[in-house]
Specification:
This protein has about 425 residues and is of the alpha+beta class. The protein contains seven helices and eight strands, in the order H-H-H-E-H-E-E-E-E-H-E-H-E-E-H. It has an eight-stranded antiparallel sheet. Helix 3 packs across helix 5. Keywords: Signal.
Length: about 425
């Protein structure tokens, strides 16, 4: 069964080839780091007529390890760009394609965000599929019943550990539609109503093991925080303490020019390699500063009456994170939603839970995956507040940049088995 944090961690545990990075690797420039890892990717590139099938790929780690919090904690604690020790990837997203990218930020619109959301940077992106929701193990090239794209991006930092971005679509995939670039992806996922409590409990125990205070650990397995990515610029300069401004949500909107036929019979790796060329814009990058941000431009809450510290002007001088009309609730929760706790807002255009106002067809911020249902209704909301998507009430937030391919997307053993994408632990702050 699909679980967002599980799906990300399963991109981490792999059968190592051999350690190839030099001892002084972390002190190198971002460009040197990218060159070192890209050379390893090229040297272990698969031929397209000899792609490894899922059933013949490297032996995965035993899924019973998902119940071991110490085992899972490594995904947060290991700061290298290669897998530690003898880790093996599990059975979800075992194969993909990887390419060099540049994260280009539009600085005239991102002055409110800090770190990589302002400077951008160079790195690699791995495009894969989550296979955990298929009822049986299938060959990647076969027609899966649940085609579910995912992406992880690494941005290299001069003299510092890289920062990684994990993106997923949602809990339901896109059925048999084989267009890899069909849907938006985000760092936030809704909770499935049929989520396994065993997996959730294991991850909560893992989070409890992480060092530091409460803000140094993820708030939930469904919200993959962006604070650490906003705390450092690509040149290695750290953001002054207390001045980090991170988005609550980052949304990748795929380039419609990269569309793949929905009924393609090809292996998805072949299709992605075919449509992505050097210079292709893979995704435009959109961001929301606040859980209910409509896409302002100066970091202020759109309805805070001009305040500068995140307070709402209607909060009577309350704390930065609470509204007096929410009964003392937590960040982003509005008590004017009828008193419920399931994330419904009566001011979202009269819609039901998770209704998207940006659905309806074809533009960058629209969702094409609602199967023709009621406008913008999210089938995957599940009624939970944990992991609530902030785009229920208006578009995809502020356009802040784009991810551009600097190479072809290629299948590679190093890309599948060795490169490590650490999960950030720090929580978002208002």
């Amino acid at each position: 069964m699909f679980h967002p944090l599980l799906a990300l961690i399963t991109t981490l545990f792999i059968t190592p080839l051999s350690a190839v990075l030099p001892r002084n690797y972390q002190s190198l420039s971002a460009q040197a780091k990218q060159t070192l890892q890209w050379n390893q990717i090229l040297e272990s590139q698969y031929r397209f007529d000899q792609l490894p099938a899922l059933s013949s790929s490297h032996r995965p780690d035993n899924l019973t390890l998902l119940g071991n919090p110490t085992y899972l904690a490594t995904s947060f604690l290991h700061k290298g760009d290669e897998m530690p020790g003898t880790r093996r990837r599990m059975t979800m997203s075992p194969v993909g394609v990887i390419c060099k990218v540049s994260f280009r930020t539009f600085r005239n619109s991102t002055s409110r965000f800090t770190g990589l959301f302002h400077s951008g940077g160079i790195g690699v992106i791995r495009l894969a599929l989550h296979l955990s929701r298929t009822s049986t193990v299938r060959e990647i090239g076969d027609r899966a019943t649940d085609f579910a794209p995912t992406a992880v991006m690494k941005i290299y930092i001069d003299g510092e550990p890289s920062r990684n971005f994990h993106y997923i679509k949602d809990m339901v995939g896109q059925g048999a539609n084989r267009n890899y670039f069909l849907n938006n992806m985000s760092n936030i996922a809704g909770r499935r109503p049929d989520e396994s409590p065993v997996i959730l409990e294991a991850f909560m125990r893992t989070i409890a093991l992480l060092p530091g205070d409460a803000l140094s650990r993820p708030s939930s397995p469904y919200n993959l925080g962006l604070y650490e990515q906003a705390a450092v610029y690509s040149n290695g300069t750290t953001v002054t303490d207390g001045r980090v401004v991170a988005p609550w949500e980052e949304i990748l909107v795929p380039n419609p020019r990269l569309a793949i036929p929905p009924d393609s019979a090809n292996d998805f790796r072949v299709d992605v390699n075919r449509v992505v060329t050097v210079g292709s814009v893979l995704y435009t990058v959109h961001a929301r500063r606040w859980p209910d941000d409509g896409g302002g431009t100066d970091g202020r809450r759109p309805d805070n009456g001009g305040g500068t510290d995140g307070r709402r002007s209607d909060d009577g001088g309350g704390t930065a994170r609470r509204r007096p009309d929410n009964g003392g609730g937590t960040v982003g929760r509005r008590s004017d939603d009828g008193g419920g706790t399931d994330g419904r807002r009566p001011d979202n255009g009269g819609g039901t839970v998770g209704r998207r106002s940006d659905d309806g067809g074809g533009t960058a911020g629209r969702r094409s995956d609602d199967g023709g249902g009621m406008a913008g209704r999210r089938p995957d909301n599940g009624g939970g507040t944990v992991g609530q998507r902030s785009d229920d009430g208006g578009g995809t937030g502020e356009l802040i940049g784009e991810i551009v391919a600097e190479s072809r997307c290629i299948p590679s053993r190093y890309g599948d088995e060795v490169i490590f994408f650490r999960q950030s632990a720090e929580q978002w702050r208002p």
